[in-house]
Amino acid sequence: MHRYTSIEDLKEGFILKGLRVKQTHWQSVKSPDDTFELSPVIFEYPIPDEPFELAGLKPQLPWAEDHFNERINGMPLNPGNQYKNWRFYKHKPSDDKFRDSNQQFSHSYMERFWPKFAGRFDDTLLIERQQSDDHGFITPNMGIRYNLGDLEDVIDLLRRDPTTRQAYLPVWFPEDTGNVMNERVPCTLGYHFYVVRGKLHCHYYIRSCDFLRHFRDDVYLASRLTQHIAFKAVLDIGILYMHITSLHVFYNERGLLRQRNT
Q1: What DSSP string describes 169-238?
Q2: What is the CATH number for 113?
Q3: Cβ-count burial 2-22 (b if 16+ within 10 Å, e if not)
Q4: What is the mean predicted confidence (pLDDT) over 162-191?
Q5: Domain that holds residue 23
Q6: What total of structural domains would you count in the chain?
Q7: Whether the predicted model's global pTM rises above the 0.85 cut
């Protein structure tokens, strides 16, 4: 287990201890390269009280904040809008290879945060859906026995029972198990929120994280989510514990880890 409390120490540990790993697939397609990997990793980050204080993480702003707001807006958008503003989206046809005939991705974080009506409506009908739901005309998606929960249900649970050990927001769903459809599946497994001595901590479980393309934004987004929940549940903010099974870069990009601005 590799444990770090600063990004600079993590980078140095990555450079010194990372190993080449043979890769056959990446995002459910043929991998363009092997990876340089550090595994497993725990990154601890004391979450500040205010969103602007997260700028020290050097995430991609304003995109990270805009995408965070897209994730928490209560609508299971797919594809949404902010994917087009991500710095690695090239606005060319090859970037659409992961979208289906309806121009939707195999999943979106908005669908996973708000699964009650995910997959049932396109973006133009979401407001109509909300209005209909208010009058009880539409039945939400169900699990095996019960209605699905969402981000707001996690917040409600923490409001009524801050001592709970059940405040978990899953992003990895049963349909991802075994990847039987051979589609892209979420990198994030889920977020476990737990109050210790009055402070809300987040244990963020992620199976796969590209350091150069995603890591700083992932820390930002998980921290913003914790801030959001703490504010709505009237709790103080604690620490982000980011549990990463595979922290990696493509092997031919490993030299970029030595650059100061990565």
Answers
A1: EE-S-GGGGGGTT-----SEEEEEEEEETTEEEEEEEEEEEEIIIIIHHHHHHHHHHHHHHHHHHT-EEE
A2: 3.30.572.10
A3: bebeebeebbebbeeebeeee
A4: 96
A5: 2-258
A6: 1
A7: yes
